[in-house]
Amino acid sequence: MKKTVLIYGLILAILAxxxxxxxxxxxxxxxxxxxxxxxxxxxxxxxxxxxGRKLNKPxxxxxxxxxxxxxxxxxxxxxxxxxxxxxxxxxxSNKQIAGQLFVSxxxxxxxxxxxxxxxxxxxxxxxxxxxxxxxxxK
Amino acid sequence: MKKTVLIYGLILAILAxxxxxxxxxxxxxxxxxxxxxxxxxxxxxxxxxxxGRKLNKPxxxxxxxxxxxxxxxxxxxxxxxxxxxxxxxxxxSNKQIAGQLFVSxxxxxxxxxxxxxxxxxxxxxxxxxxxxxxxxxK
DNA sequence: TGAAAAATCATACTTTCGGGTGACTAAGCT
DNA sequence: AGCTTAGTCACCCGAAAGTATGATTTTTCA
Lengths: 138, 138
Description:
mainly alpha; 0% strand; DNA-binding
């Protein structure tokens, strides 16, 4: 991020320098200011797209996934259920989830049953799919 | 997309006009070309970011998901297997998949078994997770 | 045309999931 | 103190998923 800003400033400086140079060297500026504008515009549109992409790209810490809390509350999904749901989404079996959360498999099943009802689905794969589409999980 | 390009051109034209106007009106251009550059640069960086965002945002048809064909080939995953995998990712049961592809449930199971071996996973949820992380499916 | 790869299906068996039901405990609220 | 909610667990049973093995048919392609 800091690097991005630095590069941005650098490009700006270089451009100013280059344009200044052309300006005083040939004195053609008056003839084609539109050309200058176009040039700068294109350069910086490209820069902007690059910056935007960097800001947007998945895996970037600053890239935003924020949980849809409204939906979670609306559906009445509890903290624990959400926790289980996330582990399901990672592909763990009920047994593995139970081990990871230090509870019995039966408990996991209960959580999942409740979850399925709240999400109006029948299978874990559907639950994951729906939860993803609702941004309940990433 | 077409609209985006149009707006881009429009901003460009307006900017040229505005600058021209200031130029001929006050004749201050020689004093602060850096200011002009900065101005245009900022405007178009912003434009670029917006354009980039539009291009990137999920749900946009032009937003690019392209299948990781290299990985698919490397792993030796067939066309049919991929098809099954996608339906699994949508949360369908083996029976539903079988119905949709007009084959028997056993065939689906075979495809999935082969798929699991190729992806080195044990469960359908893991397969989906891994396939997603490898961009085999969206 | 003939071998290899992909797709199909079956049978048998094991494991995992999911539904239904009931119950107990702890925490929080009124 | 009584009520509600969340979390925990158990048992049963049937359905779905997954494993293993073997076999047949299609497609592909050298």
